[in-house]
Design goal:
The protein is α+β, with helices and mostly antiparallel strands. The chain contains six helices and eight strands. The protein has one domain (5-185): 3-Layer(aba) Sandwich (Aminopeptidase). It is 31% helix and 23% strand. Strand 3 (61-67) and strand 4 form a beta hairpin. It binds coenzyme A (COA).
Length: 188
């Protein structure tokens, strides 16, 4: 079971269904869902369902991000049901380094919670410059395009899958479409 994570300015708390109203208010903003494939969540109950699915996913680990002083919910960070890193921050708080601070702390916690994992991946739209910046600041590198197998059904990838993911890292040129793939390899 994941515990809270503390950084200098933030608290990362395992996501709860009761966070739905605040998270729905963030995710309903056009500048937030613009680069997210699944689009806006239409209602608070749809947001609650998304949170419940995340909580039940075999590999998903998602945290709600709060500002430490005000305990205001400002976003989420974690791994989604597709085993991909995902985050969002309320636009009111953009460009203060919060996503970078949250993702860096998440990565440390993730590899402690899942000691057999060797890497973690994500994909983003090529126009999502701020997100690319966050990934690069946290040590992600541009990766080869990957097949899209759908949500995983096992709690951990096999060692072969992990090694295969790592051996392809950064070896291909940018994909021609607008999707970019990034990988973070656990430091040895
Ligand atoms: C991506 C996102 C989480 C970044 O949150 P944030 O707290 O503002 O991120 P940070 O402040 O840690 O870092 C943002 C960096 O992007 C840079 N940036 C912001 N807008 C930019 C732009 N249009 N072009 C280039 N760089 C940009 C900032 O200057 C900063 O870099 P710096 O520290 O070198 O100055 C936020 O924009 C967001 O929630 N977007 C919508 C959801 C989303 O796209 N999630 C990712 C899905 S893969």
């Amino acid at each position: 079971m994941a515990n809270e994570i503390y950084t200098s300015r933030l608290i990362l708390r395992p996501i709860a269904v009761t966070d739905a109203p605040e998270l729905h208010a963030i995710r309903s903003q056009e500048e937030v869902y613009r680069h997210i494939w699944t689009g806006p969540w239409k209602s608070i109950s749809e947001t609650e369902e998304w949170i419940q699915e995340i909580r039940n996913g075999p590999r998903s680990i998602m945290y709600t991000i709060l500002q430490k002083e005000e305990t205001t919910i400002i976003g989420i960070v974690g791994v989604n049901r597709w085993d991909k890193v995902h985050y969002m921050i309320d636009p009111k708080f953009w460009n203060r380094g919060y996503a970078t601070e949250a993702l860096a702390a998440f990565l440390v916690a993730f590899f402690k919670l899942q000691p057999k994992r060797l890497c973690i991946q994500t994909l983003l739209s090529a126009e999502n410059h701020a997100s690319r910046k966050v990934l690069e600041k946290c040590g992600f590198v541009h990766d080869a395009p990957k097949p899209y197998p759908g949500p995983p059904t096992t709690s951990e990838p096999s060692e072969e899958e992990e090694m295969e993911a790592i051996s392809g890292a950064g070896s291909n040129p940018a994909p021609s479409d607008s999707t970019l793939y990034f990988i973070y390899i656990k430091p040895t």
